[in-house]
Amino acid sequence: MGLLITLVSCFLFAICAPLGKLMYAGDWTPGPVTFVRLAGSCLLLAIPMFIQMRGRWREVWQVRWYVLTYGVVCMAGVQLLFFLAVERMSPPIALLLEMTAPLMIVLWVWASTRFRPSTLTFIGIVAAAVGLLIILDPRGSSVDLLGVFYALSAAVCLAAFFVMSAKADLSFPSVTLICITMGIGAVVVALITAVGIIPAGMTTQDLDAGGVLLPWWVVALALLLCTGGAYTTAVVGVRYVGSTISSFLNLVEVPMSVVMAWILLGDLPVAVQAIGGVFVLLGVVFVKLGENRQERRRVIARTNVHPETAEMHLVVEEEAPED
Question: Residue ranges of the EamA domain (predicted)?
């Protein structure tokens, strides 16, 4: 169930990418697009949030610092930094750098727990990275150092999203977390745009979607619905499958986005992109197998204190996997 929910999230996120591209083609800038996505999705989720949270607001206040950090880093940070990177460099390079978030999570878990990931997990990392390189094909693209900084910062924020969502032990529904933090993120983006740190530009002209002219508000509404649904299912999915698996499964968003761009924008994918998608899926499978093997390994630490020498010995036993 967790894998299915996470795949739904990836699909909704994949739709958001070409919809956002339509708005950029209509002279919108990253600040207004990000604000519209966050603020609009917050409003759409407000009704179910108030219904679910009647008389339970104290539960949110008890974890107010977690909620505030989630809104600033996981909502405003991920979206705004990525779109700022796209302004200064090609979208494939920016997406490739942002997708290093799963690698950051694996390395962070390894460094913090001193427990080396399994060999299958490493194979999955390599396969996923090769798949992304094939799909995005960064050859010949110009690289802007500030753009690289923005993209890597977005990757850090994305890694924080997976880790914070997986470790969240909240008593209130996920819809409430998403709604409130989207509102916080919208306020942050609005303040950054208002003070002139990033430019503000938007128009009300019709947008060209594969030869069909659509009013800007239709595209914006579709973007809001997909954004709210994507984040809600992402938080639910990551609680089922964990941060590592969810972050690697999120790589499937790339080939999905290629397909949706073909449908909505007429950008026909080539065979090499399909091959890259296969590598990404294989990488996800290997990571899942590696995580399952890690779960079957039970480490039992016993501390034996010898009265005469007072030396402490650590005995590590490994349980054999079941047949």
Answer: 2-136, 146-287
d(CA 253, CA 143): 23
Structural tokens at position 236: 């639910």
Indicate the pTM of the whole model. 0.71
Which tens digits make up the pLDDT trace of 19-57?
Answer: 777 787 777 888 888 888 888 888 888 888 888 888 788
Give the residue extent of every domain in the chain. 1-91+144-267, 92-143+270-302
Which tokens belong to 158? 């994305």
Three-state SS string over 212-234 comes to: EEECHHHHHHHHHHHHHHHHHHH
Strands (E), 156-247: 207-209, 212-214
Longest Cα–Cα distance of the chain, Å, equals 85
- The whole-angstrom separation of Cα 80 and Cα 84 is 6
Residue bearing tokens 């079941």: 322
**Residue in the structure block whose two tokens are 């294989």:** 282
Torsion of Cα atoms, 259 then 261 then 263 then 268, to 10° = -70
CB 227 within 8 A of CB 14: no
Write out pLDDT tens, residues 77-130. 998 898 787 777 766 667 777 777 777 777 787 778 777 777 888 888 788 778
Phi, psi of 54 (to 5 degrees): -60, 120
Say which amino acid occupies 257. Answer: S
